[in-house]
Amino acid sequence: xxxxxxxxxxxxxxxxxxxELADKTxxxxxxxxxxxxxxxxxxxxxxxxxxxxxxxxTVEYLETGKNINELGEFGLNxxxxxSADPDLIPYLDELxxxxxxxxxxxDKVKDLEPSDVESLLRVIRMFEEGK
Length: 131
Prior knowledge:
This protein has 131 residues and is mainly α. 66% of the residues lie in helices and 0% in strands. Helix 2 crosses helix 3 and helix 6 (74-84) packs across helix 9 (114-128). The longest helix is centred in the last third of the chain and has 15 residues, at 114-128. It is elongated, with a radius of gyration of 16 Å.
């Protein structure tokens, strides 16, 4: 997976069109984003920084696929939950707490899609509420 692949993957996860990403990052049209995602065009560092910000990730992740944050895509999952079901945020926080007994679970699922993390947290909430 290269920079363009990671940009496309995160853009899709956020539900952004190529034009929306172009608008938010200072490109004139979706053609530029399309070329970046397909590897036909390089992206300057200052634009890569803006893309990372808009996509809720780091430049390092876009360049290497590695997160400096050991929690994987925690930030992306949190942003997703803030709009999908904010009541699940405390469960995500507990799951990601290094001192939590549930931390082992988070270590196993940290790379799930945000919607899958949402489903998992709903199940945890259901168990804790005794339903």
